[in-house]
Task: inverse folding
DNA sequence: TTCCGGCAAT
DNA sequence: ATTGCAGGAA
């Protein structure tokens, strides 16, 4: 009689086989340097492998260690991040590096210590544990979720992570945690190109609001303007220049130009988040 | 729950 | 024009 553990054992065998068949020799799999692995995890949050490849190498060449990143100018860090998206991740990574450097420079390996660092949540903490330290971890992210839903919840809809997580936990191997999760990631990534995205049946799955014309797009444009002003040797970005640039962007796209007060509000929010500092009618990073 | 970037594939 | 991405924080 087929027990639940038999089903799980067959599942594990299949994932191992598929993982071997579909193995991706990604650059960040060729290092065990915790900092380098951490940077890869941070970059890969909501960002495709194809875009991180190249940028990860360039980042490590420029900021080769926790100490180097901690000592770097934040604006340089932000500039190096451009194109990866979600600028907050760069700020969090920089701040976390400063915290780790203050604590002696060793990247922690416990989930508790990792999650205390800005920008590191349960998934990233588990990724660092598994890939850098080869330690047991419950790594539940989109590719892993895809595999479990496809294999173990083939018909279910609106599946909560609370139903998936115990299974992920039950599958954590005694040895080669790293290889197990590589297999899950590679099989999951392949599944999404092969069958209708199983992750869509997760309760976690959410559609994102439209980017074009969004507030998000304006924020990103302002960050670029701040970096350009700095690059040009200016004391900062003036409200007038920001209003003009954003106005041109919006008008060119057939949208109404934002009011100066709105642009000022966006800049002040960026300042409050630590992207820049305000002095009078100038914002500098 | 909502917000946060940017891009390639479709 | 839509989709989804090795998620985290407020």
Result:
């Amino acid at each position: 009689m087929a027990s639940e553990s038999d089903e799980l054992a067959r599942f594990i065998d299949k994932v191992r086989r598929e993982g071997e068949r579909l193995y991706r020799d990604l650059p960040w799999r060729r290092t065990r340097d915790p900092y380098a692995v951490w940077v890869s995890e941070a970059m890969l949050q909501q960002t495709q492998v194809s875009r991180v490849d190249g940028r990860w190498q360039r980042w490590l060449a420029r900021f080769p260690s926790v100490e180097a990143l901690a000592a770097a100018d934040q604006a340089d860090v932000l500039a190096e991040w451009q194109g990866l998206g979600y600028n907050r991740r760069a700020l969090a990574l920089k701040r976390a590096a400063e915290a780790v450097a203050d604590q002696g420079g060793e990247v922690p390996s416990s989930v508790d210590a990792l999650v205390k660092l800005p920008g590191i949540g349960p998934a990233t903490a588990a990724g660092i544990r598994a890939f850098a330290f080869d330690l047991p971890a419950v790594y539940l992210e989109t590719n892993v979720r895809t595999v479990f839903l496809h294999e173990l919840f083939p018909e279910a809809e609106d599946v909560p992570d609370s139903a998936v997580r115990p299974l992920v936990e039950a599958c954590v191997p005694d040895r080669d945690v790293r290889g197990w999760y590589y297999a899950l990631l590679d099989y999951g990534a392949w599944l999404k190109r092969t069958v209708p995205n199983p992750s869509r049946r997760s309760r976690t799955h959410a559609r994102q609001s439209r980017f074009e014309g969004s507030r998000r797009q304006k924020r990103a444009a302002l960050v670029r303007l701040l970096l350009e002003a700095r690059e040009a040797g200016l004391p900062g970005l003036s409200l007038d220049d920001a209003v003009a640039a954003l106005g041109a962007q919006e008008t060119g796209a057939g949208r109404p130009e934002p009011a100066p007060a709105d642009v000022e509000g966006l800049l002040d929010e960026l300042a409050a988040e630590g992207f820049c500092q305000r002095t009078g009618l100038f914002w500098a990073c």
